[in-house]
Amino acid sequence: MFDSVLVANRGEIARRVIRTVQRMGLRAIAVHSEADADLPFVTEADDAVLLGPAAPARSYLDVDKVIAAARSTGAQAVQPVAAGTREPVGALADAVWEAERIGYPVMVKTAGGGGGIGMGVAHDGRNLRVRACASTRATWPETPSHRSMIR
Fold first, then answer.
1. Is the per-residue pLDDT at 151 higher than 60?
2. Which residues belong to any copy of the Biotin carboxylation domain (predicted)?
3. CATH number, domain 4-79, options 3.90.180.10, 3.40.50.20, 3.30.450.40, 3.10.20.310
């Protein structure tokens, strides 16, 4: 198990995740832009890291900055960014390759899905294939996409 989670989200979503992480007895680490420095999710977290300017592309969506924040704080897990912030993986083989590149475990979700429905954790390539199929089934027909995203 892990003892700290970097919450790579903002606003109300981040607040809910932070509360849940803390209720689990884990350390919650927020990341934020300059514009969000005084928002409740930042002050409610156990630690917070400034990512950069207000523009999401230069802060929240800059994967290298989020990873650097996780490393600098010693975060042992990262809660993924909300839906729609990364491009979906085109083929399952690409998803497995990407997951192996960034390292397991990874979060799997249906591209275009929301509210956490169909999200799951994959710990290896076989499990990633199973999770991707389960993710698609969980959100069909509301989200008729066969594409998945991994984090």
1. no
2. 1-151
3. 3.40.50.20
